Amino acid sequence: MKENSAMNTGSTESIDIKVTVTPMQNQEGCLKANASFILNGAFKVTGIRIGISQKGNVFVSMPDYKTGRLDDAGKDIYQDIAYPVTRQFRQELYDAVVREFHAVME
Predict the structure, then answer these.
(1) pLDDT at 27
(2) How far is CA 94 from CA 19, 72, 75, 104, in A?
(3) 10 Å Cβ neighbour count for 39?
(4) Which CATH superfamily includes the segment(s) 16-105?
(5) Measured between alpha carbons, how far is 93 from 39 in angstroms, rounded to an integer?
(6) If residue 90 lies in a helix (H) or strand (E), which one and from where to where?
C-alpha cells in the first residue's frame, strides 16, 4: 500500500476542520455537549463528548465503544474508534472543539 507522503508529514496546515457542537439537554453531570467534525469537507467523525472536570477544565472525549472485557479492577475497558494520531493535530482539533463549545454555550 502506497502512502501519500504529503499526508504523512505531521503538518496540519492544509486540513480544514468544521466543528458542530450540540449542548446536552440535561446539564447536571460533567458531560455538557456532543460534537462532531468534518475534515476537509470529506470525512466526518461523530460521537465526541465535551465535559467539564471537577476542577472546572473543559475536556474532549473522542468516540469509543465498550469492548466487553474488564480490567484488573473489574471495570469495563473502552476502545477508541477514532482519534488524532499526532500531538500537533490533536491539539489543533481539541482547540477547535473547545472554541466552538465556548461559542455555543455563551
Answers:
(1) 79
(2) 10, 30, 27, 15
(3) 15
(4) Stage V sporulation protein G (3.30.1120.40)
(5) 10
(6) helix 87-105
Please count the residues of the chain: 106
Find residue 18's DSSP bridge partners: 38
Task: Identify the bridge partners of residue 38 per DSSP, sorted by sequence position.
Answer: 18, 44
Which amino acid is present at 54? Q
Give the mean pLDDT of 67-79: 96
pLDDT at 52: 95
Q: Record the pTM.
A: 0.81
Residue (of 55, 44, 56) closest to 20 by Cα position: 44
Reported as a single tens digit per residue, the pLDDT across 15-45 is 899 999 999 998 788 999 999 999 999 999 9
Question: In what helix (H) or strand (E) does residue 62 lie, and over which residues does it extend?
Answer: none
